[in-house]
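INSTRUCTION: Work out how this chain folds

Fields: amino acid sequence; protein backbone structure tokens

Chain under study, with its fold:
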Amino acid sequence: MAELARKIATYEDLYSIPENMTGEIIDGELIVTPRPSRKHAYATSALDKKIGTPYQYGEGGGPGGWIFLMDQEIKLGENIVVPDLAAWKRERFPVLEETNWISVAPNWVCEILSPSTFRNDKVKKMPLYARHAVEHIWLIDPVAMTMDVFRLESGRWVLLGSYAEQGKVRVEPFQEIELDLSDLWL
């Protein structure tokens, strides 16, 4: 029997998903996941405040000069991804785009892992971020209370460190401030 041709997802397919779901298109596949749990949302919000404020606004010892966005559609080639938190150096951020998505890859991405997104975040999105030269990625698991920090080197992710529970860390690309991991756990 001939294999049925797989339908390539388009941006318009994102309009068909329920409002309580998040849609992404990776390698032509429409991926639909539930909205984040409260532990997931709390970790994202806390991280945005802890690093976003000093790095976006220059408060609390940070240098400023970055743009931080939560749950923003980003177009990487034909793919649409929605990282939990992403940041661009201000000079690279496309202010005047008229689309819902941003067409410039961020400098940094943070994915908050959950049972419904864990596999896609690690197996599908990490290689996609590497192909589009995202410089840094953090993977945070609010259930296990861990954080893995990666830097892109020669097109491959290099693990810079794994941190857990109540640790205080200074990690790339935001090493000017100390992050208390206990602030991320609900």
Observations:
- Helices lie at 38-57, 118-131.
- The chain is about 20% helix and 30% strand.
- The CA atoms of residues 49 and 55 lie 10 Å apart.
- The first strand starts at residue 21 and ends at 26.
